[in-house]
């Protein structure tokens, strides 16, 4: 009975909706986009649009490459050379590939120079570095988080802290992972990652881009000032969120009783759009690129367009140890952490941030 | 003659009583001449000697002093003294005595290297020579009962991250704690609980789970170890 009850339980999830204007001084959109580091999938939906505008298309194809390195030992990430070449000059992001956040050891490098290690109990007890238990452990603590500040370390290479960390990574418990790396250089430097990690079998990948056109789409009617929706006039932010998920998963939105897969139907009031373009970029995408994309989408409404609003959705890696800034992220029955912008033609926007069960509240 | 028979028993008084000088009046009445103390004493002694021919002088003295001869002896029930058991000192007293403290000037790693050599030799003898093909089980069994003073131990795993990596020569082993001197000449006290130590002997690396090892080294040699519970820290 208890098992059945547990299986029927829906894990807790949080959805934070806020509205603001891009021109507003205190608008947090830049900060939130830039502090969400590990982005897996970016998609945007433009209703009433047949072909993507040229600038958008260029930007989409120019989202930079990301790199995949096999069996990179951890001590390579704390060498002075690496810190000077990549971490200090630009924003370098790294994440271990194919490690489950709730089972295995995971390592992430954030652009602000912090190296986050999320280790299981046995590994933590063997490395001998000071860390703290994860906030989402039960009675018996099985996961520990160690946070190393690389910028701080690089000031003083003879410090005891640095010596202990390199002793631990080189001799005591050498750990090797497959990493996904991406680097956005400040200044006009070429990306030298390929040559730096050449002896570890580094491969360059371009993000996958999928552009599709959806016809005869039922879209909800929204009013930018009414976040909660108004009866018979506009839909609420939550309904829009659900609808967007249904569109992205190509579900039929007509609530046919014979439809086995989905009985979802578009929230009312809705209008019928003849066509809408849906573009998805999948890969290891840097926050800077998403900022540029967001700006470009704002400029979409510089010329009058048929569409009342456009949406931009960004999903993070389910196995990332952090969600926003350094908030801890965990995986219970789903490890989602994503955000969604709804951009209106008067430069208003709605921002929705959603997290799963083992997560802190989004900022 | 005036004799005072009130108090008998004590020698000098008795003598004074016997040899008490006559008062002048009595002497005139009885027409006795005062012979003098010494002459009187000599006279009495000679008289006693003549009267008791069979007795030794000592026996005569005893008789005079009326010493009793004890035939049976019934001692009074004295309070029994607490039997002094060799219980040893309690931990507090031992700590106060500072017998087992190692003074700072003696805490040098180089001083204990010969001890380590001795220990290696001891282990080699214990295991009948450490050949590469000796069975690990045998080494394990022997190490469980062996004395580890002088071994180089290092902490491989511990619930507290700052203990991990401490390596040095073992100086003292108490019930719960290892006292180790490291290469930097520092005395480190490492609790055994929730730690895994590694001991290396001639190519054989053994891991000691400290939580199961919490016995005094003297008691450990007689202890039978059972595999109970989990070795998870």
TrEMBL record, chain A:
Pfam families per record: Ribonuc_P_40
Highest taxon of the lineage: Eukaryota
InterPro entries: RNase_P_Rpp40
One BP annotation, GO: endonucleolytic cleavage in ITS1 to separate SSU-rRNA from 5.8S rRNA and LSU-rRNA from tricistronic rRNA transcript (SSU-rRNA, 5.8S rRNA, LSU-rRNA)
Lineage, broadest ranks: Eukaryota, Metazoa, Chordata, Craniata, Vertebrata
GO MF annotation terms: ribonuclease MRP activity; ribonuclease P activity
GO-annotated cellular components: multimeric ribonuclease P complex; ribonuclease MRP complex
Record's protein name: Ribonuclease P protein subunit p40 isoform X1
Automatic annotation (TrEMBL), chain B:
Pfam family, one: RNase_P-MRP_p29
SUPFAM superfamilies: Rof/RNase P subunit-like
Lineage top rank: taxon: Eukaryota
Molecular function as annotated in GO: ribonuclease P RNA binding
Keywords linked to the UniProt accession: Nucleus, Phosphoprotein, tRNA processing
Record's GO cellular component terms: nucleolus; ribonuclease MRP complex; ribonuclease P complex
GO biological process: rRNA processing; tRNA 5'-leader removal
Compartments reported by the entry: Nucleus, Nucleolus
Subunit structure, interactors included: Component of nuclear RNase P and RNase MRP ribonucleoproteins. RNase P consists of a catalytic RNA moiety and 10 different protein chains; POP1, POP4, POP5, POP7, RPP14, RPP21, RPP25, RPP30, RPP38 and RPP40. Within the RNase P complex, POP1, POP7 and RPP25 form the 'finger' subcomplex, POP5, RPP14, RPP40 and homodimeric RPP30 form the 'palm' subcomplex, and RPP21, POP4 and RPP38 form the 'wrist' subcomplex. All subunits of the RNase P complex interact with the catalytic RNA. Several subunits of RNase P are also part of the RNase MRP complex.
Name under which the protein is recorded: Ribonuclease P protein subunit p29
Source organism (scientific name): Phyllostomus discolor (pale spear-nosed bat)
Protein encoded by which gene: POP4
């Amino acid at each position: 009975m208890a098992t059945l009850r547990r299986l029927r339980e829906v894990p807790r999830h949080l959805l934070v909706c806020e509205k603001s204007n891009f021109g507003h001084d205190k608008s947090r959109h830049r900060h939130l986009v830039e502090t969400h580091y590990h982005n897996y999938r970016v998609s945007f939906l433009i209703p009433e649009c047949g072909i993507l505008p040229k600038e958008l298309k260029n930007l989409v194809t120019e989202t930079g490459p990301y790199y995949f390195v096999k069996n990179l030992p951890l001590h390579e990430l704390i060498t002075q050379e690496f810190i000077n070449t990549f971490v200090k000059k630009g924003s370098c992001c790294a994440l271990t590939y194919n490690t489950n956040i709730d089972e295995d050891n995971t390592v992430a490098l954030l652009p602000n120079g912090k190296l986050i290690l999320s280790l299981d109990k046995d590994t933590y007890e063997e490395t001998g570095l000071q860390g703290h238990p994860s906030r989402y452990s039960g009675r018996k603590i099985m996961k520990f988080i160690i946070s190393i500040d690389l910028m701080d370390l690089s000031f003083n290479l003879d410090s005891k802290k640095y010596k202990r960390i390199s002793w631990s990574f080189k001799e005591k418990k050498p750990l090797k992972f497959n990493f996904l790396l991406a680097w956005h250089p400040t200044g006009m430097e070429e990306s030298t990652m390929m040559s730096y990690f050449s002896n570890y079998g580094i491969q360059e990948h371009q993000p996958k881009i999928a552009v599709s056109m959806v016809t005869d789409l039922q879209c909800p009617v929204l009013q930018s000032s009414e976040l909660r929706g108004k009866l018979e006039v506009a839909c609420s932010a939550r309904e829009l969120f659900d609808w967007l998920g249904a569109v992205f998963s190509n579900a039929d939105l007509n609530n046919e009783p014979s439809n086995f897969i989905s009985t979802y139907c578009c929230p009312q009031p809705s209008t019928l759009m003849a066509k809408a373009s849906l573009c998805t970029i999948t890969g290891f995408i840097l926050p800077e690129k998403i900022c540029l994309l967001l700006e470009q989408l704002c400029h979409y409404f510089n010329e009058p367009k048929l569409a009342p609003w456009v949406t931009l959705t960004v999903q993070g890696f389910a196995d990332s140890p952090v969600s926003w800034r350094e908030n801890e992220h965990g995986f219970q029955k789903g490890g989602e952490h994503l955000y969604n912008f709804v951009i209106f033609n008067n430069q208003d926007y709605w921002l929705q941030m959603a997290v799963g069960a083992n997560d802190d509240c989004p900022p | 003659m005036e004799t005072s028979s009130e108090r008998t028993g004590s020698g000098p008084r008795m003598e004074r009583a016997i040899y008490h000088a006559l008062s002048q009046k009595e002497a005139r009445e009885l027409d006795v001449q005062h012979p003098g103390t010494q002459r009187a004493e000599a006279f009495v002694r000679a008289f006693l000697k003549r009267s008791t021919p069979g007795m030794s002088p000592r026996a005569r003295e005893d008789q005079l002093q009326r010493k009793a001869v004890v035939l049976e002896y019934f001692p009074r029930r004295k309070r029994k003294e607490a039997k002094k058991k060799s219980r040893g000192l309690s931990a507090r007293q031992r700590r106060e005595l500072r017998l087992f403290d190692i003074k700072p000037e003696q805490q040098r790693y180089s001083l204990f290297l010969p001890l380590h050599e001795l220990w290696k030799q001891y282990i080699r003898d214990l295991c009948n020579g450490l050949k590469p093909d000796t069975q690990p089980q045998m080494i394990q069994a022997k190490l469980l009962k062996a004395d580890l003073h002088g071994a180089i131990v290092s902490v491989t795993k511990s619930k507290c991250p700052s203990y991990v990596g401490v390596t040095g020569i073992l100086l003292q082993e108490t019930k719960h704690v290892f006292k180790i001197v490291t290469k930097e000449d520092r005395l480190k006290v490492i609790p055994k609980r929730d730690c895994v130590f590694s001991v290396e002997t001639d190519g054989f690396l053994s891991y000691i789970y400290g939580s199961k090892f919490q016995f005094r080294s003297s008691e450990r040699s007689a202890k039978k170890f059972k595999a109970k519970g989990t070795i998870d820290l």
